[in-house]
Amino acid sequence: MVKPCHFALFDLQPDFRIDLSALAVRYRELARSMHPDRFANATAAEQRQALERSASLNEAYQVLRSAPQRARYLLGIGGHELALEVTVQDPEFLMQQIQLREELEDLQDSADLGGVAAFKKRLKAAQEQLEDSFASCWRESAQREQAERLVRRMQFLDKLTHEVRQLEERLDD
């Protein structure tokens, strides 16, 4: 079975900027209509297809709702697989990673919830800036290298944001 484009599943045009609220509404509609339980009395083949459609829908939703995953997916459907190991060629980014990690460690050591909140706010602003930059260049083949660099940075900040949330949870306990 050939997987349809993630955007096509939601009747969207492939674009980086999408309405996440509308995506969530459409996902819930589709999930209800193709949920495997609705096919409990169907043939085994129809049940398997329902399961596959539901799994494809879930995968597509997870990819499209995440800016870094959506960006990577867009580059992939454009015929460019992103090599993640290329960060070594981006020394400015490496320095930024080191500084942010050290700052997060300091916040963890000091258990500074206010500092964590300020750090999280700065990360969000940096993510928005990367997303704006990616949105303006991903379609340009001459800017492909820059788009890939931005995706790698988005992925790093996304992972760091996840770690900040975990730190917040630990400090709240």
Automatic annotation (TrEMBL):
The keyword Chaperone applies. The gene is hscB. Residues 5-77 form the J domain. Interacts with HscA and stimulates its ATPase activity. Pfam families: DnaJ, HSCB_C. Co-chaperone involved in the maturation of iron-sulfur cluster-containing proteins. Seems to help targeting proteins to be folded toward HscA. This is Co-chaperone protein HscB homolog. CDD domains: DnaJ. PROSITE patterns: DNAJ_2. It comes from the Bacteria. Keywords: Chaperone. Belongs to the HscB family.
